[in-house]
Design goal:
8 helices, alpha+beta, Phosphorylase Kinase, domain 1, 11 strands, about 250 residues, Transferase(Phosphotransferase), domain 1
Length: about 250
């Protein structure tokens, strides 16, 4: 197993290896997805989250072995990049890759655990959440900051921004970092980046008006574009879900 740690955890490689090797049998489950799992462990005095990425298909096992960085390595390096740009994300600690001979095995990303107060998804499901509108506006300011810094977070969806309440307001932390681009963003790309967040027109309208103010865009053009991108995504999502149901039916 190859393990790469940040400068503050160079002396913890054996402890990190032990945690990862015992991932299946130990730790507290935080997220048990169909492809990936996240568990909480104790590392010295810190509580850490370890994300185990699922073993990819055969072709990707070759690709990740010889041609492309693993999801765990990209998560680690992108987290360091974000912090260098003063964008918050749980502190990256290490990544690890299992080597199974000629093929790529499984990879793991380790970061400090963040006990968030909510995610953006909370706002989608609970309009009566305290400071609902303020958090939504502040989130839009946060997204605008990402765009201005050339950070294209490709998985900018409802569950991938953790939110912590502070004395000064709210802090936003990006998670699930393995798909990102760093380059200037066009108006269309910026609007598309909001498409996966919410199906609610009212939320889109609030975000669009705030974004237009920040970027000095035309408010109506911004709202129309942001809502159209949202509608397009929702239609694609519904078609994809319907296709999955049909495939499951035929498998039965």
């Amino acid at each position: 197993m190859k393990i790469v740690a940040d400068k503050n955890h160079k002396n913890s490689l054996s402890e990190l290896e032990a945690l990862i090797k015992n991932f299946e049998s130990k730790g507290k489950m935080l997220s048990d997805g169909t492809r990936n799992q996240i568990k909480i462990f104790q590392l010295d005095r810190d509580e850490v989250a370890i994300k185990a990425f699922g073993v990819p298909n055969f072709i990707n096992r070759v690709v990740y072995k010889y041609f492309r960085k693993s999801k765990a390595q990209r998560s680690f390096e992108y987290a360091q990049k974000l912090l260098s740009l003063h964008i918050k994300t749980p502190d990256p600690i290490a990544y690890a890759v299992e080597d199974s001979g000629l093929l790529f095995g499984r990879s793991y990303y380790v970061c400090k655990n963040l006990n968030a107060d909510l995610t953006y998804r909370t706002l989608v499901h609970d309009k009566n959440y305290p400071d609902w509108r303020k958090i939504l506006v502040d989130f839009t300011v946060f997204t605008f900051e990402l765009h201005e810094k050339g950070i294209h977070f490709l998985d900018h969806s409802a569950g991938n921004t953790l939110i912590k309440k502070t004395e000064a307001g709210y802090d936003f932390y990006l998670v699930d970092l393995n798909r990102m681009e760093f380059k200037p963003m066009s108006f269309k790309t910026r609007m598309h980046n909001f498409s996966r967040l919410t199906p609610h027109r009212e939320m889109v309208a609030i975000m669009a008006q705030e974004y237009a103010h920040l970027a000095n865009y035309d408010p109506k053009e911004t709202e129309d574009a942001m809502w159209q991108e949202t509608v397009n995504f929702q239609e694609r999502f519904k078609k994809k879900r319907a296709l999955k149901k049909k495939l499951k039916f035929w498998k039965k």
